[in-house]
Amino acid sequence: MGNFSIALSGLEADTTALNTIGNNLANLNTTAYKGQTTSFEDLFHQQLGESGAGDPIQVGSGTKVGSTSTDFSEGTLLPDANGNTSDMALDGNGFFIVEQNGQQSLTRAGNFTVGNSGSLTTQDGQFVLGYPAVNGVVNTNTNPQPITLPVGATEGAQATQNFSVTANLNSGATVGTTFSTPLEVFDSLGQSHQATITYDKTATNSWSYSIALPAGDATGTPVNNTGTLTFDSSGNLTSPTNTVSGISFPGMADGAANLTFNWNLNGSGSSPLVTQLASASSNGNTPQDGFASGNYTGFTVDPSGVIQAKFSNGNSETIGQVAVANVANVQGLVSVGGNNFQTTGASGQAVAGVAGTGGRGVVDDSTLEQSNVNISTEFSNLIVAQRAFEANSKTVTTFDTISQDVIAMVR
């Protein structure tokens, strides 16, 4: 009898709905899990005839699962209590791109980890893709590639080549007054030296200067380490201008190369940083570009996905940039497990790019996106699906009773 198939179609559809709800509840704590909803639609109808008014007389043949849609709304972004920088979340649209055995997938789950080889991977070993940096510059015109961090690497030392000094020399000081500026510099081996710039007022608006290293740090005769600073009536440095070049200390006692650097009088601006005003002599910043060697200590990721490797000497180096992809129709994506999705003809191809551009979300470092399953909603749906299943079960038992009555009539 057709009656049984109607009720059984309802039981089959309700079972699918219950499975969907159960899967949502099972993934309440799954990073970036996206909840799903099962929708039904009726099967074809058989037309038995027409009423006296000409209206069709139809009997339905049951139901079926029409679709299982995915809720791609953003889950709660929860900062990592331990500040784990390998954890990332996307604030906005888009997906991280991962790859394993040549197969690319998309994921919202940013609970990544760093392997012994330095590869940034998912929990099940898929490579996280991005754009590599060349000489500190990210080239986003290339295809996304696996991101590798310099785990265990050591950054070599760099000798000081340029420095600048922000200072004021008291215009009211008497001739013979001295003042000094401490300056840390590094040689080619990364050894730190505490240099000193000593100023000696020789006349109105005129100070001589001398740059020296601690006794015993260099055995040779210094070159171009002395001179005179001249100021105008407004306290502006008029001579020398721009840069004092070729200051050199030969014969470094530790075996390093001759320490040679330039004094950039204007810093990064266009006006001299050393002034002579009617206030107490004082020192400000003394930036320089040398540094000691340093070991890799970790990394950070900025909102655009740029990865900066950190070293123990305080330096950072741009390693690459995490790729973020968009698709035209997210409902066309197919879930393949492991928090991954793959594209289909319905979704359109994934278009990779940079976070924060082209409608893509930005990257939140040390943060994870939580499951977007709402437990209250799922419990309500569970009750509805349960009642529907029970109702269809009752229909089956009713049809069975009627069938038994029909059989009894024949006896």
Structural notes for this entry:
29% of the residues are buried. The strands form nine sheets. Strands 7, 8, 11, 12, 13, 14, 26, 27, 28, 29, 30 and 31 form a twelve-stranded antiparallel β-sheet that branches. This protein is mostly beta strands and 411 residues long. It is built from two helices and 33 strands. The mean pLDDT is 93. The chain has three domains: 1-72 and 372-410, no CATH class; 95-144 and 299-370, no CATH class; 162-284, Flagellar hook protein FlgE (Tick-borne Encephalitis virus Glycoprotein, domain 1, Sandwich), CATH 2.60.98. A hairpin with a 5-residue loop joins strand 20 (226-231) and strand 21 (237-239). The protein has helices spanning 2-26, 375-410, and strands at 36-42, 45-50, 56-60, 63-70, 77-79, 88-91, 95-100, 103-107, 113-114, 120-121, 127-134, 137-138, 145-146, 154-155, 162-163, 167-170, 178-186, 192-203, 206-212, 226-231, 237-239, 243-249, 259-264, 274-277, 282-283, 294-301, 306-311, 316-326, 334-337, 340-342, 351-354, 362-365, 367-369. The protein is rod-shaped and about 130 Å long. The protein is 15% helix and 41% strand.
Q: Give the name of the CATH architecture of the largest domain.
A: Sandwich
In angstroms, what is the radius of gyration? 37 Å
The main β sheet shows up as: 12 strands, antiparallel
For the secondary structure, the number of strands is: 33
* Protein structure class: mainly beta
How many distinct helices? 2
What amount of the residues lies in strands? 35-45%
Any idea what the CATH superfamily of the largest domain is called? Flagellar hook protein FlgE
In total, the number of domains comes to: 3
CATH level 1 class label of the largest domain: Mainly Beta
Percent helix among the residues? 10-25%
Measured between the Cα atoms of the first and last residue, the distance is 19 Å
**C-alpha geometry:** rod-shaped
Q: Might you state the CATH topology name of the largest domain?
A: Tick-borne Encephalitis virus Glycoprotein, domain 1
What's the pLDDT, averaged over the residues?
93
> pLDDT below 50 for ≥5 consecutive residues: which ranges?
none
